[in-house]
Design goal:
Blueprint lengths: L4 H22 L24 E2 L2 E2 L1 E6 L3 H12 L6 E9 L4 E8 L2 E3 H7 L12 E4 L4 E4 L2 H9 L18 H16 L1 H6 L4 H22 L13 H11 L1 H5 L14 H11 L10 H11 L15 H6 L6
Parallel strand pairs: 3-4
Antiparallel strand pairs: 1-2, 3-7, 4-5, 5-6, 7-8
Length: 322
Amino acid sequence: MTIPPAVVSLSRQLWRCQWLVLMNGLAPADDRGGFRRRPSCFRETLLGSGQDQGVPRHVLIIGQSCPWAHRTWLVRQLKDLASFIDIAVVQPNPATGRWVFREPFEGVRQLWQLYRDSGADPSARATVPVLWDRYEGRIINNESADIIGQLDKLPPGPDAVTATLRPSDLIPSIETWSEWLQGDVNDGVYRCGFARTQEAYQRALDDVFAGLDAVEQALADGRPWICGELLTMVDVRLFPTMARWEAAYQDLFGCGLRPLWSFPFLWAWRRRFYQLPNVAATCPSETWRQDYFGSLFPLNPSGLVPKAPPLASLLDLPFPKS
């Protein structure tokens, strides 16, 4: 059966209109068609590290597929903060696009209910990570940059990988790298995936690969970590994006201009970070792929989830020969 060209054209126009409506709900854009991240609505400080009968005062609410939540989870793991910070997990509901708890939490099943009960504007999106205060029964912070900084100030546990991810002598370098990579790479992949125009997509793609080239050049001198000999917050901020590269960003977000293995020092850095104690447990790459392809309907309307090797198997491979 041959479909008349007029029907094809009309269908494309209708789908484009519907796609824009869906994209505006998922990810707002600026007047040039570029993705614009919404500001966080809770920005308070961690209110101590107390316990009540052995139960930590604060709960870190994460979604396993969210890279912003992943960085907070990593700090908790690397500093061995389980005795200070509990974890609760939400997962995306493909039918509604909202985060839901695996088990009831504080009497609710959906994350947006905690936002509402904490006084958020009704129009605010319920995002992760979230720092919840059990004593006050409310959200105190949902900005990942704030949360990782506050967690890093807590005293390290006995099995911590590091006492701090912000060594005082490296703070200028940490802040410079963090600002650059956050905008050009971490946010850049989302600006690729959520771009409304070809021009916006190309700007974002250029930023992403300029950022990767800069990291590759920095690591080429033999240093183990981006700022030098010590693991820092810069590495923690970048790893969730690099870990998800093959699972989501390379294909679904249109970031396949160059494979990650074409950056040999970055490739080795990713393996090195993954092999740190307790990091592998934060990397359920098959869950990531299912959530991205299955839940981001505007980017993958078929709902089909393509198969791919898990992250662990990629890291076990010898470096590809050029």
